[in-house]
Design goal:
There is one protein chain. The chain is of the alpha/beta class. The chain contains 13 helices and 20 strands. It has helices at residues 22-28, 46-57, 77-94, 116-128, 146-151, 166-181, 207-217, 252-267, 280-289, 314-321, 335-344, 416-419, 440-443, and strands spanning 2-9, 19-20, 29-31, 60-68, 74-75, 99-104, 133-138, 154-157, 187-193, 223-229, 243-249, 277-278, 295-299, 327-333, 349-354, 366-383, 386-398, 401-406, 430-433, 449-453. The protein has a 9-stranded mixed sheet with strand order 12-20-13-19-14-18-17-16-15. Strands 3-4-1-6-7-8 form a 6-stranded mixed sheet, with helices on both faces. The longest helix has 18 residues, at 77-94. Bound molecules: zinc ion.
């Protein structure tokens, strides 16, 4: 048996003021054939999983490129064409193969392509022909097009949000691909549209029980895998929306009925799945009043993980206005300010302008006297088993508040973000971070409470008012569907 694997992944916020090119991929993660580290990354976990299975079972693994760019703006045509052709050329020279396994995200949009993953899967199918098995992993914040389900045999998305199960998902996908090659199963894909778009964290009800339920259905009556495609509301493409995706073993009718039933159940959760979102002022006032810290305040929309710059100053300004100085902010993206602080050196005091360089929706930049507390070149934070680069980073003191400035955009995943910059997260009353829900597993053990602040900014967080051009209008809440 001979299997080819590759990974091209990013999440495109088509409304973002950012743009993405090859340097964004190289800055976040790029491994040429054979260079993938043993550590799994979010979307390329199929690499270490394939390696382990190949070794155990004695099949050949041909590795192509694996690359990932931090979620951002529209990918330029040349970069998308280049990465796609690089992987397709690698596949052509790997032939003949029994299977192709791809680690995808599923929400990549380029200047010249609204459905990058569909286009890639279709091109792979054209190269390998109808009999080779194609499997791919997806992030649930993706757009599921017919092009993808037509081209692939196996598609499996992470079930958890936060995506703590990305290795498990890769294992499920690779396992199904291998069993298909061995003719132990004959998978078919079934999709049911939920006709909605919603934020669906699985760390809380009702989604927690829903995920447990779909897991309990897997492996029975020909149901091989069930995924919930949450959809990604910041991607303005025709396939945007929530869907149920079932991989089933020739039990077509049963699987399609199950997909439909699950889609109706999910639709009934609309409007009830989000945690309580507070205004920035409410969140800070509530955190200040709490008897003990640290209280984590998540700036849920200025989340670089959703493709925005992550340089909003609004929550920091609110901390100052409310005189909540016993606080640390991690992070504000500002490579220029980081460079200036590094030039000034640890211990230096200087006048610094920082934050809010990229849009007029992230509050004005801050001008203030700051002290450079710590400089870390190539700083990182943990996210589960993977390590996320923050780039050169500094911790500064601004009016008593410790602010971490970073130069590689990244959402806040884990308290190691603070520790690695010399800040004991438990020593602060308030930790202000930028993330929608991925922070939850990392921060929950250190937090005495978690508050979610809904700060308007460059993220289109209300589909009812977002100015979409391509997304469907006949989905909730764009249309008030009742059933
Ligand atoms: Zn996601």
């Amino acid at each position: 048996m001979r299997i080819f694997c590759a990974s091209i992944a990013t999440e495109t916020n088509t409304f973002s003021p950012l743009r993405a090119d090859l340097s964004d991929f190289k800055e976040s993660f790029y491994a040429g054939p054979g260079d993938h580290p043993e550590t799994p990354t979010l979307c390329s976990a199929v690499f270490p999983v394939c390696r382990r299975r190949a070794k155990e079972e004695g099949w050949d693994l041909v590795e192509g490129t694996a690359t990932w760019a931090e979620p951002g703006g529209i990918v330029n045509s040349k970069t998308w064409d280049g990465l796609r052709e690089e992987v397709l050329d690698q596949l052509r020279s790997a032939l003949p193969v029994n299977a192709v396994v791809l680690g995808l995200h599923g929400a990549m949009v380029a200047q010249n392509c609204q459905d990058c993953e569909g286009t890639l899967l279709k091109a792979v199918r054209e190269i390998v022909g109808p009999d080779v098995i194609i499997g791919a992993t997806l992030d649930p914040h993706s757009h599921l097009s017919e092009k993808r389900t037509d081209a692939a045999d196996v598609l499996v998305a992470f079930k958890e949000f936060p995506h703590t199960d990305f290795v498990e998902c890769a294992e499920d996908c690779v396992d199904l691909v291998v069993r298909t090659v061995k003719k132990q199963v004959s998978p078919e894909l079934h999709v049911a549209d939920c006709n909605m778009i919603e934020v669906l964290p699985t760390s809380r009800e009702p989604m927690r029980s829903f995920v447990d339920k779909i897991k309990s259905l897997e492996g029975k009556e020909g149901i091989l895998s069930i995924s919930v495609i949450h959809g990604f509301m910041a991607g303005d493409v025709p396939d945007m929306g929530t869907k149920i995706l079932i991989v089933a073993d020739r039990e077509k009718n049963l699987a399609q009925t199950l997909a439909y039933d699950l889609s109706r159940e999910l639709f009934s959760f609309r409007g009830t799945t989000r945690p309580e979102f507070l205004s920035p002022t409410e969140a800070v006032v509530r955190a200040k009043k709490a008897p003990s810290g640290p209280i984590v305040i998540a700036d849920v929309w200025d989340n670089p993980g959703g493709g925005v710059p992550g340089d909003s100053t609004i929550l920091l300004r609110t901390l100052v206005e409310q005189e909540a100085f016993d606080a640390a902010v991690g992070t504000i993206w500002d490579p220029m300010a980081v460079k200036t602080c590094i030039s000034a050196g640890e211990g230096a005091t200087l006048k610094l302008r920082f934050g809010s360089k990229m849009s007029d929706t992230a509050g004005p930049p801050i001008d203030g006297d700051v002290k450079v507390l710590k400089i870390v070149l190539d700083a990182t934070q943990d996210f589960g088993e993977s390590i996320v680069p923050l780039g050169d980073s500094v911790a500064i003191d601004y009016m008593g508040i410790t602010v971490i400035l970073n130069s590689n955009r990244s959402q806040s995943f884990d308290p190691s973000l603070f520790r690695n910059l010399g800040v004991d997260p438990k020593s602060k009353k308030i930790l202000a971070i930028k993330s929608t829900n991925h922070f939850y597993d990392g921060f929950e053990p250190v937090a005495s409470d978690i508050l979610y602040a809904s700060v308007d900014g460059p993220y289109p967080n209300d589909p009812k008012t977002t100015d979409y051009k391509y997304a469907r209008t006949d989905i909730w809440p764009r249309t008030d569907l009742s059933g």
